[in-house]
Amino acid sequence: MKAAIFNAILGTLLSLAAGLEILHLDWPTILLCVVTSNLSIFVALLGSLQIEKLAWFKKIPLHGAIKTWTVLTLLYVGLAVSLSAPLQNSKNFFVLVLPLILSAGVGIILFGPVQDQLVRRQQRKERTFKKRTSPQQA
């Protein structure tokens, strides 16, 4: 968790520095990109977990980690670019992409408790289903 917070602070500072000095963007625009990055990684993590459960996704003949990282990256970049107008400019995107990825630590930290809750809910459903379908002992 400390590493994620450190990276989030470092990424935000690097985004501000690159945006102000290289791209000459104003700081609210840069902070909007940072917030968008965090929202995008949060949604991309949730989305990639759901996509992994789909039957057609399981049939893709790639190693599990490659499939997961590809989907996560596509979702993250797609969401970040579509939600943040400054990132739709290719120069802005390529200058800010690495600092914004670093700044996404807050979204990752927030994802942890949500993922825990989703796992607990799924386990409760499975226990309830097993109780209902198990043969009744006399």
Plain-language structure description:
The protein is mostly helical. It has one domain (2-128). Helices cover 83% and strands 0% of the residues. It has helices at 2-22, 27-52, 55-58, 64-83, 90-103, 105-133. The radius of gyration is 19 Å and the shape is elongated. The mean pLDDT is 90.
From the structure above, extract its key features.
single chain; 138 residues; mainly alpha; 6 helices
Percent of residues in helical segments? over 70%
Number of helices: 6
User: What summary fits the major beta sheet?
Assistant: none
The structural class is mainly alpha
The share of residues in extended strands comes to under 5%
Q: SSE layout and pairings?
A:
Layout: H1 2-22, H2 27-52, H3 55-58, H4 64-83, H5 90-103, H6 105-133
Quick summary:
The chain is mainly α.
